[in-house]
Amino acid sequence: MTPPRWQVVAWRAFSGLMALGALVLGVMFSLVVLGVLLGLGLIFSGWWWWKTRALRRVLREQRAAAQSATSPAQGVVIEGEVVREASDVPRLPR
């Protein structure tokens, strides 16, 4: 025995509303999770930035010292080619 047509339509409408409600709840839950993860990421990145500030300062000073030591105004640039005889290289026995 098949159910009346109005029951089939009512059941489909009810199941559609339930699916729509589940979709809305899923989107809400994912937005909450995304917000929490974003907040934790910001907290972690701020902590990491604070903990590595001394290292960044040392690296900045070393880079400045290296650039000032090798500036073209103070150093001598030598360009050229190197030619090496093949007989100078010891060969391994085959």
User: What structural class should be given to the helix and strand makeup?
Assistant: mainly alpha
Helix-strand pattern? HH
Q: Any low-confidence stretches, pLDDT <50, length ≥5?
A: none
Main sheet overview: none
Number of helices: 2
Oligomer: single chain
Averaged pLDDT, please? 86
- Computed CA radius of gyration, to the nearest angstrom: 36 Å
Give the DSSP E fraction (strand runs of 2 or more residues). under 5%
DSSP E strands, number: 0
Helix content: 55-70%
Distance between the ends: 91 Å
Shape: elongated
Provide a short characterization of the protein structure.
The protein is mostly helical. Helices cover 68% and strands 0% of the residues.
Describe the overall structure.
This protein has a domain at 29-69. The chain has helices spanning 5-51, 53-69. The radius of gyration is 36 Å and the shape is elongated. The chain has 94 residues and is mainly alpha-helical. It contains two helices and no strands. The relative contact order is 0.04. The chain starts with a helix and ends in a 25-residue tail after the last helix. Helices cover 68% and strands 0% of the residues. The model has no long low-confidence stretch (mean pLDDT 86).
What order do the helices and strands come in, and which of them pair?
Layout: H1 5-51, H2 53-69
